[in-house]
Amino acid sequence: MGAVMARNGDWLQTFTGGKFWPLDPRPEDVDIRDIAHALSLQCRFGGHCLRFYSVAEHCVLLAGSFRDCHTAVQLDALMHDAAEAYCADVPRPLKRFLPSYAETEAGVMRAIATAFGLHEPMLAAVKEADNRILADEKAQNLAPLDWDLEPGPALGVTLQFWSPAEAEQKFLWVFHELTSGAWR
C-alpha cells in the first residue's frame, strides 16, 4: 500500500461530502454537483443588489447568450465562474487587490478546466460577454449609480431571479445538455 501524499493547505468540505483543497486543487476532486450547489447559493455583487441573484443564474444566462455557438463555447461560458464554488465570489473592486486570491482562483480554475475540458485561459468572447452582462445586471438589479467604468453595451439578457434550488437545477440541466451527460 502506497503512502498518502500530503496536500498543500487546508481542505473544505463540499456539498457532496468530499474534500477540496483550494491551495492544492486537482481535477479528480472537482464535482459538478458541488459547483452547481455552491454557485446557486452565492449572490452576485456580494449581495448588494435589489433582489437575490445567484452566480449560478448569471452563468446560465451567460451560456444562453452563446446558444448559436459551438457547445464547447457554451460550456466555457457556463463554467466561467466555477472556481467561485471553491473560492467564493469576491466582488471585482476587491478581487484586483488580492493577488494571492487571484492565484488561488486561477489554480482552481485550471483544475476545473482540466476536469471538464474547458479552454484555459478563458476565451476572449466569454470574457467580453461576462463584462457586457454587467450592463444588464446593473440596469435590472442594482440601485441607480454612475460607475467609473461603464461595462459597455448590454448583452441583452433578462434576469429571472431564480431561487437557489431552481438555479442549481437549471445549471445542472444546462451542463448535462452541453456535455450529453458525459460527466459525473
What are the salient characteristics of this protein?
184 residues; mainly alpha; Hypothetical protein af1432; two-stranded antiparallel sheet; 8 helices; globular
Task: Summarize the structure in words.
With 184 residues, the chain is mostly helical. It has a single domain, classed as Hypothetical protein af1432. It contains eight helices and two strands. The protein has a two-stranded antiparallel ribbon with strand order 1-2. α1 runs antiparallel to α8, α2 runs antiparallel to α3 and α2 runs parallel beside α8. The longest helix is centred in the middle third of the chain and has 18 residues. The mean pLDDT is 93.
Helices, strands, pairings?
Elements: E1 12-13, E2 19-20, H1 32-41, H2 55-64, H3 71-78, H4 84-87, H5 92-95, H6 99-116, H7 124-141, H8 164-179
Antiparallel strand pairs: 1-2
Short description:
48% of the residues lie in helices and 2% in strands.
